[in-house]
Hints:
Shape: globular
Oligomer: single chain
Keywords: DNA-binding, Transcription, Transcription regulation
CATH topology of the largest domain: Jelly Rolls
CATH class of the largest domain: Mainly Beta
Number of strands: 9
Number of domains: 2
GO molecular function: DNA-binding transcription factor activity; sequence-specific DNA binding
Helix content: 40-55%
Structural class: alpha+beta
Protein name: AraC family transcriptional regulator
Distance between the termini: 41 Å
Pfam family, one: HTH_18
CATH architecture of the largest domain: Sandwich
CATH superfamily of the largest domain: Jelly Rolls
Order of helices and strands: EEEEEEEHEHHEHHHHHHH
Domain HTH araC/xylS-type: 188-286
Number of helices: 10
Amino acid sequence: MKQPLRKDLEPVAASFIVKKLVEPHFDPNWHFHPQYQLFLVEEGTGTRFIGDSIKPFGPGDLVFLGPNLPHLWRSDQVYFDRQSTLKTRGIVVYFTEDFLGNDFFTRQEMAPIRQLLDQARQGLEWTKDTRSRAEMALHNLTNQAVGFDRVLGLLTLLNDLSRATDYRHLTSPGYTNTVKPTETDRMQLVHDYVLGHFPDDLSLDTIADLAGMTSPAFCRYFKTRANKTFSEFVSEVRIGHACKLLMDGKLNITQISFESGFRTLSNFNRQFKDITGQTPSAYVKTYRQL
């Protein structure tokens, strides 16, 4: 039986949780939970799904999520192969809004962090210098024993993030989580099928049948839950895969187009620019400057 969409963490005596993750692959289940989550990828590649945002991830990926924001770091398929010796590593911090008391973050001195927590409900990611400083701070947190210094370390990190300017929001401004815990299996089946077949010609009728719905009903259902049409979702998955291949630098743009499920180069270039705001070649230049 699949895990429920709402993920409840095991209770601990400490005020917040810091974990080092070392696994063959990251948790493959699309889920949400009531805690804030700060997550750093140290090793591993794949596609990151947060709300209605779909982006490739790799080492150094730093994301901060607010409560009940659905997410999934889907490792590349090679990490699921039985013969694979690859592994994923990351550092994750979980805390509730009241982990230091009901009113702590409402105080005047906490205004910048309060604003950070509010913005995290859309999901946030950082780049460049902030990401490097946060990576060092997270490593320090994992090495500290439970106590005052660790609480101070987390607050210092949140304060640093609240003052940084090299951040981006992840979800669209109007995104809200409308997925119900009872719909876990249906959305999970759709995600798994698309991630396993996006290079192929995907049939809407096949997907709708998999979800146990008619095609028109499935289209309405998916748009309500994902804040985008099913075809937009598939295009973003394909473009996310193309971004990873571009960053690898092993294939030319025409090869990447076909590897990502596009049948014509012109359609690939058009959709790539629509989704990323850049041409494939410009995207590569931007990536190399990060």
